[in-house]
Amino acid sequence: MSAATGRALAAVMERVAVTAAEVGHRFPLHADPADGRWTTTGRGSWTGGFWAGLLWLRARYTGAESDRRAAAACTARLAPWAGADTATRGLIFWYGTAAAGDDAGAAEIRARAARACLASCDPELGILPWGDALGGPRLLARVDAVPGTVPLLAGAGPAGAAAAAAHLHRHLDLCLGRTGGADDDASGWFRPALRFETATARWRPCEDPPPGWSRGQAWLLLAVADAMLRPSGAAGDPARLTVAAALLLTRGELLTGRPVPPADTALPDGPRDTSAAAITAVALLKLARAPGPRAEQYALRGAEILDHLIRSHLTGEGGGRPAGMLLDGCYDATARPAVRHELVWGDFFLALGLAALHGLVDITRV
Q: Could you point out which of 142, 234, 238, 280 has its C-alpha 20 to 30 Å from the C-alpha of 11?
């Protein structure tokens, strides 16, 4: 690990401590790029697990018992989401507990959430539906319902592993353009969200998020990478996963494009999204640990993206704002709230990538 990477990890971990002091028992969502003040939520919403995950990473970094207790307490506050009707439970409970190691409380909450998600799976649709806990129609298949959900379900025994494989591969069918509907060719190669119409028994692409949503491609690549690192039962079809990863990397230009993509590829001069870049970097570090001839290329590209983020988008000392803020994250390019902000999930994936390079975590298990 380079000296710059070590300094960046130290700054990000100190930023976690500063944030914890500011937000108390609330959950940070996004911070103003001018002064670092956080907009928070009371229950965490779909991002709460990333804050718990950051606290667990800090506990690993410092080794302090007080930091471990803070992480455990935050994770416990996520427990009410276990029974909520939302596929974002994968994001909440996998990333909120995976870095906790052998902590018994985190393991119990993760197991409870995994059982609840398994019970909510729809075997006819082949997915854990998006759900209505966060508003909107329930029968959605969204790409951000896949990362975290696959390893979470896979932990619920043989039935969970089967459900994880079905959930992943059905989303690959849908998001990569194989719905079986008449509009397959017109919908483009990537569709981040589709709605199931019960009257016609067809999946129809949604307008929001748009096809060019760069975080969508990053989320799906992360899910594929996680599945490739799981036992074969959760992967379902390893050969197909390899093809899907290659498609996302080539068509999405994740190996050759700018390190930080536009938040919407249809708006190349619009906001960029460092959180998408951080997710992609972690996915590449995971792919580098899976068998295959391009492992070294994936590892180098993942490290290159992380290096760009810390050199060009991470705040340093001075300037009237805290050090260790990953700026230029875009919460929503369409509605345009928080388009150049620090985002809690961007911080998490940057911290996870840096921690993996530092040997602080095993990237195959988080």
A: 280
Structure tokens belonging to residue 346:
């961007």
Token pair recorded at residue 117: 């998600």
Determine contact, residues 47/31, Cβ cutoff 8 Å: no
The token duo for 145 is: 């319902």
Single-letter amino acid code for the residue at 103: D
Tell me the CA distances in angstroms from 70 to 25, 58, 99, 316, one per residue in order. Answer: 10, 10, 14, 26
- The encoded tokens of residue 159 equal 């039935």
Residue 127: phi and psi, rounded to 5, are -140, 165
Q: b/e for 284-311, b at 16 or more Cβ within 10 A?
A: bbbbbbbeeebeeebbebbbebbbbbbe
Closest alpha carbon to 246 in 309, 189, 316, 321: 189
Task: Please state, in angstroms and rounded to a whole number, the distance separating the CA atoms of residues 76 and 64.
Answer: 19
Neighbours of 198 (CB within 10 A): 7
Q: Tell me: the pLDDT tens digits for 192-210?
A: 999 999 999 999 999 999 9
Half-sphere exposure of 242 (CA within 13 A, CB side): 9
The neighbouring-strand residues paired with 94 are none
Give the integer Cα–Cα distance in Å for 69 and 105: 11
CA angle at 362 for the pair 2 and 283, rounded to the nearest 5° = 80
Is there a contact between 64 and 55 (Cβ–Cβ < 8 Å)? no
> Beta partners for 27?
41
Residue positions counted in the chain: 366
46 near 84, Cβ under 8 Å? no
Note the pLDDT of residue 333. 76
Whether the CB-CB separation of 140 and 130 falls below 8 Å is answered with yes
Q: HEC states along 273-291?
A: CHHHHHHHHHHHHHHCCCC
Q: How far is residue 83 CA from its own chain's centroid?
A: 21
Q: What is the pLDDT of residues 24-79, one digit of tens each?
A: 999 999 999 999 999 999 999 999 999 999 999 999 999 999 999 999 999 999 99
* Residue range 261-278: mean pLDDT, rounded: 95
Pairing type for strands 140-142 and 38-41 reads unpaired
Q: What is the arithmetic mean of pLDDT over 135-149? A: 95
- Residue that has been written with the tokens 């940057």 in this structure: 350
Rounded to whole angstroms, the Cα distance separating 282 from 302 reads 7
